[in-house]
Amino acid sequence: MSLLADTPDTRNALAAPASGLHWTPGFARLGPAFFTRLQPTPLPAPYWVGRSPAVAEMVGLDPAWFAGDEALSAFTGNQLLAGSEPYATVYSGHQFGVWAGQLGDGRAITLGESTSGFELQLKGSGRTPYSRMGDGRAVLRSSIREFLCSEAMHALGIPTTRALCVTGSDAPIQRETVETAAVVARVAPSFIRFGHFEHFAAAGRTDELRALADHVIARYYPHCAKSEQNERFGGNAYAALLEAVSERTAALMAQWQAVGFCHGVMNTDNMSILGLTIDYGPFQFLDGFNPGHICNHSDTGGRYAYNQQPNVAYWNLFCLAQALLPLIGEQEVALAALESYKSVFPREFEQRMAAKLGLAQPREGDRALVDATLKLLAAEQTDWTIFWRRLSDHMAGADLDAVRDLFIDRAAFDAWHLQFAQRHEGEDRAAAAQRMRAANPKFVLRNHLGQQAIEAAQQKDFAGVDTLLTLLQSPFDEHPGFDAYAGFPPAWASDIEISCSS
Ligand code: AMP
Ligand code: MG
């Protein structure tokens, strides 16, 4: 049985709003079991904090309108966009390895889906039926971090939800201290999480579960419904979906590990069914390479430490498999659909590392070189981003000393470098340098860079947000004059405590 209404609602698509946005029912066609219609709660006297014109263009917003007050009001949630019928969705999930029951969009409200194929969602726009004890708000600090990191990840080539803009208001928000409110307008083809499936599976609501899976397959994984794709699973489209999600998630983890990104809260409700990075909270880009690094101050057990991420993603996929079991049928089939994670993750990770090392064609022994590199960097917790970028610069002709100087144990470095140089013997150095500079960013959103922009923004100076956005939108470029943004973290950076509080 399909719960999809069979006649699309085209009323809203007929409107011709100044924003340039036209809506299509999308997720909302699933029906009221999946969401609650409601309006965002207004905030007093909003102001712009940051805007991404690239996302505006992608979504199909009129640039002149996006520069104006109506957009400011609309993306703060103070004024409804023409034709928008906002809603908050219900989901459940496992938090820190424990079933948490119903969660849902506690502070996110989806404005709708544009005919350009993107859902627009406001985060921090007020209470919803899923807010539980929360206030439905987000503070300026965490909103700037989400805005910048979404755009940074995209520019790094890493699948992610995008961020259109951040608006702020002086409305006080109580966290550990009193802060001020902000709203991030974020954009993705879909914000569906593993937790949406877990929600209906846990309640034994198989019809809704199937409707959700059918929606995801039809919209985002149409190949799973085709027999060539699912014949290995005896024509089981839901198993093919699970396999496709596993593979996307494996590829995402490989990208996170290669760039040194720690998510910090990999609960199943923070896992995108599209394999996107979603819900930026206590995330961090590694400074020194400490494989066991924990970025989330609230994660005392280190469940979401950097080197745990690939395993946790697999654990989360196992939860998704369990949720999909009523549709898949056989447990063995579900387990078989998860199997490819174990080959896709290492393959993708090795490919990413090979690119970082400037290797064109894989050769036997490459894995040993990758392992040796990781061991070398872990020994002294060498700065991850700076090591790779300096190594790229060296390949392009810069003196090796800039890399060598990163190590106290010069003998260890020299031994490693011999291995690296031998591997590159007879290869085209210029081509390798090009590969490396395209794989090893000069600029990442380190905690201290975000922190400086946040502190200025708290004083109503938003230039720092803008500068970071510009640098992070082309992180592989040199950006002469901005080397300070590519330097080592200052001593105070290690005192920044980023927790779940946002
Ligand atoms: P997170 O781990 O931050 O992704 O959030 C976990 C759950 O808590 C989700 O259901 C969120 O919507 C909800 N939540 C987080 N912060 C708030 C808040 N300030 N108000 C209402 N709900 C919140
Ligand atoms: Mg979340």
Can you characterise this structure?
With 502 residues, this protein is an alpha+beta fold. It folds into three domains: 23-188, no CATH class; 194-281 and 292-351, no CATH class; 361-502, no CATH class. Helix content is 43%, strand content 13%. The chain is built from 19 helices and 13 strands. The protein has helices spanning 11-14, 53-59, 63-66, 69-76, 140-155, 194-202, 206-220, 227-230, 237-259, 309-328, 331-339, 341-356, 366-380, 384-395, 401-404, 410-424, 429-439, 447-458, 463-473; strands at 23-24, 35-37, 47-51, 87-89, 92-95, 98-102, 108-114, 119-123, 138-139, 162-174, 178-188, 261-262, 284-285. The strands form four sheets. Strands 1, 3, 7, 8, 9, 10 and 11 form a seven-stranded antiparallel β-sheet that branches. Strands 2-4 form a two-stranded antiparallel sheet. A hairpin with a 3-residue loop joins strand 10 and strand 11. Helix 5 (140-155) runs parallel beside helix 19, helix 9 packs parallel to helix 12 and helix 13 runs antiparallel to helix 16 (410-424). The chain is globular, with a radius of gyration of 23 Å. The model is unreliable at 1-16 (pLDDT under 50).
Feature tags:
single chain, 502 residues, alpha+beta, 7-stranded antiparallel sheet, two-stranded antiparallel sheet, 19 helices, 13% strand, globular, binds adenosine monophosphate, binds magnesium ion
